[in-house]
From TrEMBL, chains A, B:
The keyword Nucleotidyltransferase does not apply. Involved in 1,2-propanediol (1,2-PD) degradation by catalyzing the conversion of propanoyl-CoA to propanoyl-phosphate. InterPro entries: PTAC. The gene is pduL. It is an enzyme of class 2 (transferase). Pathway: Polyol metabolism; 1,2-propanediol degradation. Its EC number is 2.3.1.222. Belongs to the PduL family. Its cofactor is Zn(2+). It comes from Caproiciproducens galactitolivorans. It catalyses: propanoyl-CoA + phosphate = propanoyl phosphate + CoA. Pfam families: PTAC. GO terms for molecular function: acyltransferase activity. This is Phosphate propanoyltransferase.
Length: 191, 191
């Protein structure tokens, strides 16, 4: 059988910020300091960190750049529970009705009334890669993994097709641990 | 198709203690206080809690009774990482070469040189249930789940057959979160 492989990356908890919120947290006209380019074209992990405060406790996380039109916190369910936030599983940007939190930076703090989510697992394809893999934007695919005696098949992986995509599946740390992943690995696409 | 269902329970982090370690932590000839019976015959969650100390931080957990021949800490990979312990994925009781930790109770503390594990996912059957489900002790089975837009199929689920079994699959909190489970659910056995 012909097997289509795809890189599976683990997204650690992180925050996306608007320029306005970045300014409040780090000072006026602040510019993020890129630390590492991500697989998605133009996206980067930053040196800067913030503290996200929930009703039970708080947790530090990195900022992902560049700035976005809306501030968004992405964390794993285990982490959300530990800080006392009942975050729903959503695709990035689908923030309506999600819980908020307080965020503290070195120069100030913000309170968002929504924007805290557990990211829904998804796979990025360019239009050309989507043709090659036989997937359509929004399609629900499966990814098979077999590592460290925790073999599993993730269903409900949403294909996202965009010109700036880097071919990769993104899962959170709970999912990576459930699959026993030692780091970035290759998975097998099942349609 | 004939579908075999099985209850899937999430094991939160916990510790099993020897009577000797229990005495050190809670006082001589201490008797555990049962809080809730578990699905496995004779096993119970206790009112008592201890603090497990790793190199990075510590975490509180309940004791599961009755006392055992060997002290064993079971926690999810996310939790092990957060306290700084690189715990391997093992079946309960398979503790050779596993890392240790310090444990603090109200009356004293112990240091174990091994016994910290991430539990390997498994399914309990009585001999009669094993026949009904068509599984053998030690067999690697799959469990299909479909909850909260995080459908998945867990592979590497080890069947354990014993007379005192309560029919159930046991997974940890990382696995439960990866599967979007709202609590105890039914899964589907795939052989």
């Amino acid at each position: 059988m012909f097997v289509l492989k795809i890189m599976v990356e683990t997204s650690a908890r992180h925050i996306h910020l608007t320029q306005e919120d970045l300014d409040t947290l780090f000072g006026k006209d602040y510019k993020l300091t890129p630390k590492k380019d991500l697989s998605q074209v133009g996206q980067f992990a930053c040196v800067e960190k913030v503290e996200v405060i929930g009703p039970k406790s708080s947790i530090k996380m990195s900022i992902l750049g560049p700035v976005r039109p809306e501030t968004q916190v992405e964390l794993a369910k285990t982490e959300a529970r530990s800080i006392g936030i009942d975050a729903p599983t959503r695709m990035s940007g689908d923030l309506k009705g999600t819980p908020g939190c307080k965020v503290i930076g070195p120069k100030g703090e913000i309170t968002i009334d929504h924007g805290v989510i557990v990211a829904k697992r998804h796979a990025h394809f360019t239009p050309e890669q989507a043709v090659e893999y036989g997937v359509k934007d929004g399609q629900n695919i499966q990814i098979k993994l077999d590592y460290n005696e925790r073999a599993l098949i993730f269903g409900d992986v949403i294909a996202r097709v965009s010109k700036t995509a880097g071919l990769a599946v993104h899962i959170d740390t709970d999912e990576a641990n459930a699959a026993g992943l030692p780091g970035t690995v290759d998975g097998e696409v099942i349609l």
